Amino acid sequence: MPVRVRFENLRPLYDYWGNEIRRHFQLETLAASTDALIRQQDPFILPSVRRLMGAAPITHLRFSLVQESYHQLVFKLTATNANKTEGAFAFIVAKKEGETSAITEISHKNLRVAHGRAPEDVVQPLEGGRIMLLASRRARQRPRFIYAYVAQWSEGFRELGVDRSLRFFVNVVPHQLFSDKQTEQLKGRLVALLTKLYDPVKRECMEVPQIASGDVLVGRAGKSGPVPRVKLFTCRRLVRNVAPARFLHNLAAAEWEWGSGVVRLLPSDPEITWAALTQVIGVDAARQWATSYRGAVVSGRYPERPTLPISFLERVSPR
Hints:
By secondary structure, the chain is α+β, with helices and mostly antiparallel strands. 32% of the residues lie in helices and 27% in strands.
């Protein structure tokens, strides 16, 4: 029995500032191309679904667009098998061939590494591959190939966004805007997550995620404790040769212009950052890292940052 494939909610989506997000192909073309792939020799979509749902024949696949950035599309993929059992997945698709597609493929590979280090805090990636976009009979185009992959759907989590006030919010209607205190605490959770993903032996860490670009998912307040959990959804790059001092510098230096202000990765209260570090690596290791970072700042190798000032570093890492 052939699998019935349906795509829905293919309407235009807009960024936080109200600008329509540009697309480089019609989503109807993606729908037809994905359907054709599934009906032929699908190397990754159905295998991913069967990996978690078992061997029962899959009868329906429903793709619903839920998130879009300037680089990729995210669909919620609902699969139904012959036993009427449903499973939910994320279907992530590059929006353009070439460099954009390569970034999505690399992100998929990096996500495997990140999930291996912190499986509870990183979306589980499944299989991936290329989709050939079908051209119309009249069009004389060379074949276009884009990368896509499947991941496990994280129920209760949606994209983390940044409001004009620089507070975090759940980027799905109805929006849930977090308070200043909750935003600070969520930043602490991000520090803990990135610290879990740092390997001080290999000196390898994940590139700091783009907070307002769909890289991070967050739960709604009240469903996962007083402070919602966060999950890494995208890992654009693995950074190597990163000593602990540089790791802390990268966190402290991570900031983005947002409207008329600047949003920083680290909480404004360094005590929250310190609590996150000690929770993950312990007090002794955290003191060693802080001592190394303090020395790098004092020597002028790294500039002092307001979120981890020298006065605080001296207090938590006494000579």
